[in-house]
Amino acid sequence: MDILCLGEPMIEFNQSAPGGAYLQGFGGDTSNAAVAAARQGAAAGYVGATGADVFGDLFHDLWAREGVDDAGVLRMAQAPTGIYFVTHGPEGHVFSYRRSGSAASLMRPDDLPFELLREARVLHVSAISQAISESACDTVFAAIEEVREAGGLISYDTNLRLALWPLPRARAVVEATAAMADILLPGLDDARLLTGLETAEEIAAHYHALGAKRVALTLGAEGVHYSGPEGRERIAPHKVEAVDATGAGDAFDGAFLAEFLRSGDGLAAAHHANAAAALAVCGYGAVAPLPHRADVLAFLAKQERHGA
User: Fold this and answer.
1) Strand partners, 215
2) Which residues have CB under 8 Å from 198's CB, separation 6+?
3) What digits encode the pLDDT tens for the residues 19-55?
4) How many helices (H) and strands (E) does the chain have?
5) What angle do CA 121, 122, 127 make, to 5 degrees?
6) What is the pLDDT of residue 308?
7) In whole angstroms, what is the distance from residue 113 CA to residue 241 CA?
8) How many CA atoms lie within 13 A of 54 on its CB side?
9) 7 with 253: CB under 8 angstroms?
10) Strand partners, 26
11) How far apart are CA 45 and CA 216, in angstroms?
12) What count of other Cβ atoms lies within 10 Å of the Cβ of residue 145?
């Protein structure tokens, strides 16, 4: 297994336009990242839990179609698969969640597939998975410990959802997890809240001081700031006709990890993932617009021909 992602899969209902009908899709940041990595050619798997319900069936069908190994996913008869709704307006997209008591929130360390974890080259986790419940948070830390002891790498997205936990607890948990991360994948707005720092350079330096070896800080419409052994670089954004940014960060995460494992070069991976994230905002939903590797390579080649 190249990349094993752990977290909460969620069914998405995304409004096709303001006031329009809702389209059923798939979400959950780490599940999105697993699909993104698989579409980039990585051997990806998922660890988590779904309900023994129709929404859980939809996820297992999705993972089968996308080539994501779901052997580490539990089916829980006593709890539902989480869902959320996305609406669009002048201020951008708005999320409304129905995840209380979801199957993934009931995960415990004893539920982990330890054999799969020991075989993973990279474990990718998210702060959202730590925020949904105390037992899920414990499960994330237990998985990190298992993978580190086996010699695997830890990838961490500091995805912040203040509706799930208070900022002081989020800061404490994120700092502790970032200190164990080989690859840190924060977003600028979240990182400013979590660190109290303002600039990309300050934030990257802060996380390096904690122990993170590579930091790829996504800057939204301003591109990416990468900092690691390969050097530091502000990577310019690509100009695209953005439709829905729902899964852009997850597209970046999955593409970065797949390309990093392919090349061993974090800076090259950041350039590749920056293009993948740009393509991911050109359609509605978190999963449907996730590009394949051939799409990203063709896009980059076109950008190079036009001097972008």
Assistant:
1) 184, 227
2) 192
3) 788 889 898 999 999 999 999 999 999 999 999 999 9
4) 11, 13
5) 165
6) 57
7) 41
8) 1
9) no
10) 11
11) 22
12) 14
Among left, alpha and beta (phi > 0; psi -120 to 50; other), residue 290 is beta
SS3 category, 229: coil
Q: What is the pLDDT of residues 195-224, one digit of tens each?
A: 999 999 999 999 999 999 999 999 988 999
* pLDDT of residue 139 exceeding 70: yes
Measured CA to CA, the distance from residue 215 to residue 270 in angstroms comes to: 10
Region of poorest pLDDT, from 69-78, 109-118, 126-135, 245-254: 245-254
Q: Which residues contact 62 (CB under 8 A, 6 or more apart)?
A: 26, 35, 68, 287
Q: Taking all residues of the chain, what is their mean pLDDT, rounded to a whole number?
A: 93
What is the gyration radius of the CA atoms in the chain, in angstroms?
A: 18
Strands annotated E in the chain: 3-7, 10-15, 22-27, 44-51, 69-76, 82-89, 92-98, 122-126, 153-157, 183-184, 214-218, 224-228, 231-235
Q: pTM to 2 decimals?
A: 0.93
- Supply the pLDDT for residue 93: 73
What one-character-per-residue DSSP string does 5-72 give? Answer: EEE--EEEEEESSTT-PEEEEEE-HHHHHHHHHHHTT--EEEEEEEESSHHHHHHHHHHHHHT-EEEE
Residue 203 CA, distance from chain mean position: 19
